Amino acid sequence: MQTLPSFDELKKLAETAPEELEALRLRMSEEIIENASPAMQPRLRAQMSHINQVIARGKNPIHTNMLLRAELQQQLQRFARSLTAPETLTEHEAKVMPFRRQA
Q1: How far is 48 from 100, CA to CA, in rounded Å?
Q2: DSSP letter, residue 4
Q3: Largest CA distance in the chain
Q4: Contact 55/64 with Cβ under 8 angstroms?
Q5: FRET pair for 72, CA 20 to 30 Å: which of 21, 54, 65, 100?
Q6: Least reliable range by pLDDT among 1-5, 8-12, 45-49
Q7: Predicted pLDDT at 91
Q8: Rounded to an integer, what distance in angstroms lies between the CA atom of residue 63 and that of residue 93?
């Protein structure tokens, strides 16, 4: 497995070659997913897709970091709820509405 470069190297990449930093992020993420159990890979790919969508919405690096932090905060809140009140994660109920055709 590839080793994450030092903070200083990552900072330099961000300043001088952001496309290389992005390629490194994608390459290392893919490597982690490939080394995960086959049962976890679909969930990790879905999470990676979601992260990529959040990153794509960012207008600049600071905005992107704020969006990612908000996503992480939501995940941590959901995790905390799953530990303290797991029943709240499954109590959502959909109301089924009949489909009516226009005459």
Answers
A1: 39
A2: P
A3: 68
A4: yes
A5: 21
A6: 1-5
A7: 64
A8: 34
Check whether 92 has a pLDDT greater than 70: no
Asked whether 49 and 38 are in contact (CB, 8 A), the reply is no
12-45 pLDDT, tens per residue? 999 999 999 999 999 999 999 999 999 999 999 9
The domain locations on the chain are 1-35, 38-69
Structure tokens at 26: 């994608």
Q: Tell me which residue has tokens 């905005």.
A: 63
- DSSP letters of 13-76? HHHH-HHHHHHHHHHHHHHHHHHS-TTTHHHHHHHHHHHHHHHHH-SSHHHHHHHHHHHHHHHH
Q: Rounded mean pLDDT of 76-100?
A: 81
- For residues 19 and 24, what is the distance between their CA atoms, to the nearest angstrom? 9
The number of angstroms, rounded, from the C-alpha of 94 to the middle of its chain's C-alpha atoms is: 26
- Residue 100 CA to residue 103 CA, distance in Å, equals 9
